[in-house]
Amino acid sequence: xxxxxxxxxxxxxxxxxxxxxxxxxxxxxxxxxxxxxxxxxxxxxxxxxxxxxxxxxxxxxxxxxxxxxxxxxxxxxxxxxxxxxxxxxxxxxxxxxxxxxxxxxxxxxxxxxxxxxxxxxxxxxxxxxxxxxxxxxxxxxxxxxxxxxxxxxxxxxxxxxxxxxxxxxxxxxxxxxxxxxxxxxxxxxxxxxxxxxxxxxxxxxxxxxxxxxxxxxxxxxxxxxxxxxxxxxxxxxxxxxxxxxxxxxxxxxxxxxxxxxxxxxxxxxxxxxxxxxxxxxxxxxxxxxxxxxxxxxxxxxxxxxxxxxxxxxxxxxxxxxxxxxxxxxxxxxxxxxxxxxxxxxxxxxxxxxxxxxxxxx
Length: 361
Description:
Layout: E1 9-15, H1 23-42, E2 51-57, H2 62-74, E3 79-82, H3 86-99, E4 103-105, E5 121-123, H4 128-141, E6 146-151, H5 155-169, E7 174-179, H6 185-193, E8 199-203, H7 210-219, E9 227-229, H8 239-244, E10 253-255, H9 263-275, H10 282-301, H11 305-310, E11 317-318, E12 323-324, E13 335-336, E14 343-348, E15 351-360
């Protein structure tokens, strides 16, 4: 096997690695990105040249992400990878589009990732409208047509609320919004107790205010029959059960994994367990798949920005979670994998460290 040599092929990487970003998700994303780069280089690199990752911490700050994209473009990266937070990814995608820098978004789902269609940006995770409509169907199937959402001001949470409201309304359901920033957990429980909603969805940051909200609902006997849900996936990572224990169980959420990983995914999962202090989340697999796609594009089309962007519709790569291709999905402004595998899962009340699959696509 030839050791890569010569000038490195540089990729930029964005991830929330410090607060107020969800740094735990950022660490999982980065672990997947870095493992894939190591595997590419162990296999000879890109045309014999090593692949190099230039990492920037976005800290969930859109302005910081925009500045990082511009800096990475000046540093000569041929493409950009990563980001977890949707609003931050939208800022990064907008800047990448303006600069003519290919961006493969690893883990952000906001439908409107760019305001207009762009040839420069592609995305691995499903669009929010696809995932959250699936979640709404799950709620309807479980008898929860009337729901409440505890939400904070954000384009992402607002878009999610709109998707839920439109989909449930078409089936005779309702959505009541409760302001998680203006109301204390106790006051929010008081408001919920007076509603007919049978489910409360947590459209909030983690750990604050999600953790105190969960505790307040669990401790309120008036809300004993109310289902808690978290479509954005806050319960996925280990800090959730560490902070909430059994109170954090039986809260359905979305994650982007198949019922069974591919052979590559199984091997990658084993390697990720050696890099991470806890079991790898779907975010880590998204990171690995991002580099897998970009490496294949660079091998087949070369390290030229324009040619990388031209390659999106021609991608056909076996990733950790299935065959990855990109197309123009209706209403989506970027090249989209339509669609990655999707599950609705929760943590088992008997064993909060284990997941139960409630629905899969």
